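Section 4.2 – Deliverable D4.2 (structural model, holo form)

The reporting period included a commitment to supply a predicted holo structure for the target in complex with magnesium ion. Inputs used:
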Amino acid sequence: MSPRKANPFKPTAGRMPPLLVGRDGIIDDFVEGLDDGPGAPGRLMCVTGARGVGKTVMLTEFGRIAKERKWGVVDETASDGLAKRLLERFVPDRPSVNLSVKPSLSVAGLGGFSLGEASVSSQRMPLTLREAMGRRLDVLERRKAGLLITVDEAQSAAREDMVAIATAVQHLTREERNIAFVFAGLPTIVSKWLNDDVLTFLRRAQSERLGDIPLDEVRDAFVDTFEESGIVIDGDALRMAVDATEGYPFMIQLVGYHIWRISYRRQRDGKAAENGMSVSEDDAREGVSNALSRLGDAVHGPELDGLSPVDKTYLLAMAQDDGPSSTSTIAERMGKDVGYANIYRTRLIDAQVIRDVGYGKVDFAIPYLRRYLREHAAYIRMSAHDGR
Ligand SMILES: Nc1ncnc2c1ncn2[C@@H]1O[C@H](COP(=O)(O)OP(=O)(O)O)[C@@H](O)[C@H]1O
Ligand SMILES: [Mg+2]
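Output (structure tokens):
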């Protein structure tokens, strides 16, 4: 019996895919930014896109490219205390000891039994971050390298953290330091951060909206990835696999993973191994169906959890149609006037859950969401009424 092979596909959030498909344009923009020096557009970038489109993977790839050039890379994910964590990454020991700016003391226990730990006050944050980054740059620039900072899930960042980081990066950019800053998040960051006066600097960021991958590139990626692992995929099986992805990166991994798994298990110890393994139409059909059920848990569920009750009602009204929905019909189904319904239409378009397809019609922007909504309509309607 031959040793078991590892499945080459990676249907896990944030995991580098076996082949990074269809992202040459944005990678070129980033590399150009590094090559063109301080102040180049590609050095300040905002990557947006729906869940599962490949934002985290893009940041990882940027980090890899930067490290290849011996750059320093600091990657963070936004959540409470982002700026402080970032600062600690630059000053691994206690910031209070290493920075010339004296941090304020936060008084945690009023009774005096604890003076609390030393922390950097939020007003001081821009200055200290700037200093700490500046020091790291002093070292890096001596060896002709630079510093890349990436912040993932930026839509979840606290405003003061974003202000602190943006201010620090802005000053260092103005001083022509060798720095690059890339932040990524759901499309809502555009309305959340980029309309904020204090954050004008971020508005200058080169905006990269990640979208679907052209199907011919998906096809090539499937053929290559399967072939490299000793399995042939072609004909109708290949067509089924490619079509099922709808070009959605997470679905590329899910479909690839499940088809590969079924096909490999079926043939591993069978006779087929003599003249090589190949994916049958049945393998493809079953794999696609398994991929679809995983997609619901991994993408549709979390996506809907993040929406308001009325957003969900709007989507349920859309799901009654087999194709694009007329916005006036949706308003009717919701029992509201068009003006009211359009508030939610705009919100859902901003969040890239639906898209405007012209002629007063909208359609789903996330693959298979219609199907998921239909299958789970009763439950979703209930949670929408709970006011969740
Ligand atoms: N360009 C791509 N080509 C192939 N697979 C990709 C690509 N980008 C992302 N993926 C895969 O899609 C999934 C989601 O990627 P991730 O970066 O976590 O998305 P996001 O951060 O936008 O939610 C992962 O399994 C990843 O391997
Ligand atoms: Mg991500």
